[in-house]
Amino acid sequence: MDNILAGVVEFATDLLLPPRCVHCDDRLAFARPAVCSLCISRLEPLGDPRCARCGLVLAHRAMVCWRCSDWPAELTAVAAVRYQGVAEAIVRAIKYGGWRHLADICAEKMADTIRLRGHQPDLLVPVPLHPLRYRERGFNQARLIADRLAMRIDRPVVNALERSRTTPPQVGLGRADRVANVSGAFARRRSFESSATVGLIDDVATSGATLHAAASALIVGGTGRVVGVTFALATDRNAG
Ligand SMILES: [Zn+2]
Ligand SMILES: [Zn+2]
Fold first, then answer.
1. How many percent of the chain have pLDDT more than 90?
2. Per-residue DSSP letters for 129-152?
3. How far apart are CA 160 and CA 207, in angstroms?
4. Which one-letter DSSP state was computed for residue 63?
5. Rounded Cα distance, 231 and 240, in Å
6. How far is C-alpha 150 from the geometric centre of its chain's CA atoms?
7. Is 220 helix (H, G, I), strand (E, B) or coil?
8. How many angstroms separate the CA atoms of 208 and 213, rounded?
9. What is the pLDDT of residues 60-101, one digit of tens each?
């Protein structure tokens, strides 16, 4: 019902407001706000060299990665683009503007990344929101993206995790505080075969603390391999 209502609201807004690019504000010929082709072309792939395990861009190839040094061996991660400029505008437009259809742009880029990097998961598990935040927002952006990604790579979505406690937003916290903030925040609703590779889906990764905490809940349940797949990766170390 929530989805139908949101769809009606989105459609009514399309009729009332001329569609514009969510990043550069240019008028669009589309039926609803979207991202213009010039802005799409400005989505920045992550550079090289990169950490083979977590995808963080490193200053040089031999560098030891600080970001994933405490991750369990079963967890790796990939991201499609850098979290800045257009990517940031898309994520914000989905999360705070309610423009759910933009999740398709994220899914398309993530599907390309999965194919390119050979990290094909057997199933997709979205990082859950706490029920209180879900009620405020009306949707989980990770689930929106996972549903669209599932259609592109032909894999099922399984809601295998739940938030076991509320956590303050990660924005503005340093790395150590981010890790402490989400540690133990996820509970497993179901387990998978140890041979399964689970794609853990979220919109943005920063410190990797959320992926780490959510993956740990799956791994404790016997999941053999978890690949965190996010649309964007915030690469600023100071962002935590
Ligand atoms: Zn634009
Ligand atoms: Zn790393």
1. 52
2. PPHHHHHHHSS-HHHHHHHHHHHH
3. 23
4. P
5. 18
6. 13
7. helix
8. 9
9. 877 788 889 999 999 999 999 999 999 999 999 999 988 999
Sheet holding 197-205, edge to edge: 75-82, 225-233, 197-205, 123-126
Distance between CA atoms of residues 105 and 50, nearest Å: 23
Q: Are 98 and 140 in contact (CB under 8 A)?
A: no
Token pair in block for residue 31: 């039926």
Q: Record the tokens describing residue 4, joined without a space.
A: 């139908």
Helix, strand, or coil here: 27? strand
Q: Which ligand is nearest to the CA of 93?
A: 1
- Give the number of the ligand closest to the Cα of residue 53: 2
Q: Give the domain ranges of the chain.
A: 1-42, 46-239
Give the Cα separation of 168 and 81 in Å (integer): 26
Residues with CB under 5 A from ligand 2 (ion): 51, 53-54, 56, 65, 67-68
How far is 95 from 141, CA to CA, in rounded Å? 6
Q: Does domain 46-239 fall into CATH 2.60.40?
A: no
Rg of the chain in Å (alpha carbons): 18
How far, in Å, from the CA of 62 to the mean position of ligand 2?
12
